[in-house]
Design brief:
The chain has 303 residues and is α/β, with parallel strands linked by helices. Helix content is 41%, strand content 17%. The protein has 2 domains: 161 residues, 3-Layer(aba) Sandwich (Isopropylmalate Dehydrogenase), CATH 3.40.718.10; 119 residues, Isopropylmalate Dehydrogenase (3-Layer(aba) Sandwich), CATH 3.40.718. The longest helix has 21 residues.
């Protein structure tokens, strides 16, 4: 029996409609799921959508969109309304949700009170939600997400590190790892070299890990980022916990040639997404690669 899932097509001026349609046309997707797409209809039909691909919930009554792909308040309102409706359905009907890319600037122009999907999902579900990424055998999660680097020292607390680490451990267990082995990245270069430059390792990360280890949770570190990633890639660990956004995404994108899927773990429903943005520069040109969207849909179906 095919699994029903929700898809939001993201920013109507970006590549979201295109990768949604291309993914729905993929035979692997068609075999395993019945999709309900929530989107502005004209952008979806321009991308080649046909009514036999999925059920469509069309968002109407918006002002005309700009002719050129770019950040737009109207596009921000559309993509946020799609997400709001999708979250409501996902909560009520316990359906998996796959979200195509939104544009954060468009949300800001539309006065959306969230910086991105993850923050909106947390508010709607009243759950913390863990931002994690998978690609083949690689599994990584973030302690902090979309913050300025200058703000990290005050955001990165012992309690936050412990909370994210434990959530990551439990998520890996649900994915089939009975006793997941997790390596934790340091914040500072060389793991601060015994406090020579930075105290976060000694005062925040290590105490958080010791508390979890007392609960029987396998955590090693903090290790320098390059050493931690090398060990994870070699299979020594089942997952890697990173302190900030680029500490995860840059090594991950260099380490794998397989599609990367973003998962928001710890919610009352499954939520996945591709890991790229709206790509306004190629929007409407039929150049977008749907592989990450296809992987996101297949991951949501398996979860």
């Amino acid at each position: 029996m095919k699994k029903t899932l929700l898809i939001t097509a993201g920013d109507p001026l970006g590549i979201g409609p295109e990768i949604t349609v291309k993914a729905l046309k993929n035979p692997r997707v068609g075999r395993v799921c019945r999709a309900v797409v929530i989107a502005e209809p004209q952008s979806l039909y321009r991308a080649g959508f046909t009514d036999d691909l999925a059920d469509l919930i069309a968002l109407e009554n918006f002002s005309p969109l700009p002719a050129i792909p770019q950040p737009s308040a109207e596009a921000g309102r559309i993509s946020f309304q799609a997400l709001r409706l999708a979250m409501k359905w996902a909560l009520e009907r316990k359906l998996p949700l796959v979200t195509a890319p939104i544009n954060k600037q468009s949300w800001a122009l539309a006065h959306v009170p969230f910086t991105g999907h993850t923050e909106a999902l947390r508010a709607a579900t009243k759950k913390e939600g863990l931002m994690m990424f998978i690609s083949g055998a690689l599994h990584c999660a973030l302690v902090t997400e979309h913050f300025a680097m200058a703000d990290l020292p005050k955001i990165l607390t012992k309690n936050l590190i412990a909370l994210r680490a434990k959530s990551f451990y439990q998520t890996l267990q649900k994915m089939g790892f009975k006793k997941p082995r997790i390596v934790v990245c340091a914040l500072n270069p060389h793991a601060s070299d015994n406090g020579q430059f930075g105290k976060e390792e000694k005062c925040r990360i290590q105490p958080a890990l010791r508390a979890l280890q007392k609960e029987g949770i396998f955590m090693e570190g903090p290790l320098p980022c390059d050493s931690a990633w090398a060990a994870h890639r070699q299979g020594k660990y089942d997952g890697i916990l990173c302190m900030y956004h680029d500490q995860a995404l840059l090594p991950l994108k260099l380490a794998t040639r397989e599609p990367i899927v973003h998962i928001t773990a710890g919610l009352p429903f499954v939520r996945t997404s591709p890991t790229h943005g709206t790509a306004f520069d190629i929007a409407g040109k039929n150049k977008a690669d749907p592989s990450s969207m296809i992987a996101a849909i297949l991951t949501a179906v398996r979860s």
